[in-house]
Amino acid sequence: MKQAAISMILALVVSLTFSLTAANAQPVEDDMCLVINKTRNILSVYINNEPIYSFQIATGKGELTPVGEFKIANKIVNPWYVRKNIPSGDKRNPLGTRWMGLSVPNTGGYRYGIHGTNAPYSIGRSVSSGCIRMRNKDIEWLFRHIGVGTRVIIKK
């Protein structure tokens, strides 16, 4: 009888501990990551190590697109092309409708980025000066769903 009572108390303590732990547990955030394959010119969105979406992209000529792990450093709607002072909305603007800067060291997130394009025929090729180009409709989707701080892995 004594052993049965101890077993019952132990089961109650374990049950209460589990219930309190579950009640106080913080929701686990999904791990989101962008993976860019320069050889295939594909950007994939991963959630919890599973590819969810993939987009055709354009990358830099030769080795101009940096390889490594970075983060989304900033996001800009309708960016200006400062190098040639081309305003947002201008058909000559090579940055398209959205900019997502990458945390490449010593660039402030403004030298390399994932952005739209005014040259959709370049998608699927290695033609840029180092940035990752996307169709405007694709970068607009990505912009809505990817936050600042998201990991970006760029592979050869």
Task: Outline the fold blueprint.
Layout lengths: L1 H23 L7 E6 L4 E6 L2 E7 L2 E2 L7 E10 L20 E5 L10 E3 L10 E3 L3 E2 L2 H10 L5 E5 L1
Walk me through this protein's architecture.
- With 156 residues, the chain is of the alpha/beta class.
- Helices cover 21% and strands 31% of the residues.
- It is built from two helices and ten strands, in the order αβββββββββαβ.
- The protein has helices at residues 2-24, 136-145, and strands spanning 32-37, 42-47, 50-56, 59-60, 68-77, 98-102, 113-115, 126-128, 132-133, 151-155.
- The strands form two sheets. An eight-stranded mixed β-sheet has the order 3-2-1-10-5-6-7-9, covered by helices on one side. Strands 4-8 form a two-stranded parallel ribbon.
- Strand 1 (32-37) and strand 2 form a beta hairpin.
- The model is unreliable at 4-23 (pLDDT under 50).
Can you give keywords for this protein?
globular; eight-stranded mixed beta sheet; 2 helices; single chain; about 160 residues; alpha/beta; 10 strands
In short:
The protein is α/β, with parallel strands linked by helices and 156 residues long. The protein has two helices and ten strands, in the order αβββββββββαβ.
